[in-house]
């Protein structure tokens, strides 16, 4: 039995648009609810949400029956974190603040078994192999791992072409808020100067044969990124969906 097909990676390789959403409530129950919404992919956020390896695992379990593909965002691109995320069953990893080709290449190695990479061959006790029931996991896993790197500051933009030249990087995700802050616009991703940098980056990613991705949290921003050619696009954040809807509901009925 081989490693499961990564349908999200396949869709990106075939140029299909993938619409997703952020999952930041750090709870299996909430993740399961999000899995019923119909998104192509969901980001389980380990950078800004209060997640640890066990809560990431629990949300992967909660999404197992969903057609929404789970993407695990790590807090930072440490090799040991990549290994843990893969062993708990993540097939797609999103790594923030990638600033160089060397960093991207090390992440590729962390996602890959020897002799080409450094992923530890301890699959017998891992959820990824369903605890040794996926007999051919090790020889087939590498082809099903999808690595997405985030470029979200001036250093990353300067190194973008070198990052794009690294085999094994499947997509590059632009972080608009961090990029805007680093460019001196206080997190205002809508500034024309920031939008120009984003548009150029998305075009370069696509031209290099990689999948361009980004997050939009307003309809105007989201449509703009689609028009720029974003292929995998997150269109909301569960925390904001809950907070904004709840506040609007309270305001509406308290005004009666």
From TrEMBL:
Q: Which UniProt keywords apply?
A: Lyase, Metal-binding, Pyruvate
What does UniProt give as GO cellular component?
cytoplasm
Q: Does the keyword Ribosomal protein apply?
A: no
Enumerate the catalysed reactions.
D-glyceraldehyde + pyruvate = 2-dehydro-3-deoxy-L-galactonate
Named from the GO MF annotations, one term is:
metal ion binding
Q: Which residues form the HpcH/HpaI aldolase/citrate lyase domain?
A: 18-241
Q: Does the keyword Transmembrane apply?
A: no
Q: Which cofactor does it need?
A: a divalent metal cation
InterPro entries per the record?
Aldolase/citrate-lyase_domain, HpcH-HpaI_aldolase, Pyrv/PenolPyrv_kinase-like_dom, Pyrv_kinase-like_dom_sf
Family label: Belongs to the HpcH/HpaI aldolase family.
Q: What is this protein called?
A: Hydroxypyruvate/pyruvate aldolase
Organism name: Parasedimentitalea maritima
């Amino acid at each position: 039995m081989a490693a499961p097909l990564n349908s999200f990676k396949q869709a990106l390789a075939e140029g299909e648009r993938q619409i997703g959403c952020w999952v930041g409530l750090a709870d299996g129950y909430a993740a399961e609810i999000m899995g019923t919404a119909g998104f192509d992919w969901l980001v389980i956020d380990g950078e800004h949400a209060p997640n640890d390896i066990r809560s990431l695992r629990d949300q992967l379990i909660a999404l197992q029956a969903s057609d929404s593909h789970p993407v695990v965002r790590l807090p930072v691109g440490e090799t040991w974190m990549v290994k843990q995320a893969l062993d708990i069953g993540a097939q797609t990893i999103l790594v923030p603040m990638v600033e160089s080709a060397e960093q991207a290449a090390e992440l590729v190695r962390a996602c890959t078994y020897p002799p080409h990479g450094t992923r530890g061959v301890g699959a017998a006790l891992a959820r990824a192999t369903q605890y040794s029931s996926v007999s051919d996991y090790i020889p087939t896993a590498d082809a099903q791992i999808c690595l997405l790197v985030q470029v979200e500051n001036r250093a990353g933009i300067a190194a973008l072409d070198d990052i794009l030249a690294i085999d094994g990087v499947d997509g590059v995700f632009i972080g608009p808020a961090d990029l805007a802050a680093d460019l001196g616009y206080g997190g205002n991703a809508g500034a024309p100067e920031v939008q120009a940098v984003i548009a150029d980056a998305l075009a370069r990613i696509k031209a290099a044969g990689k999948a361009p991705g980004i997050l939009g949290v307003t309809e105007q921003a989201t449509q703009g990124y689609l028009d720029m050619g974003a292929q995998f696009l997150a269109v909301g954040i569960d925390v904001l969906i809950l907070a904004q809807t709840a506040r609007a509901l309270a305001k509406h009925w308290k005004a009666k």
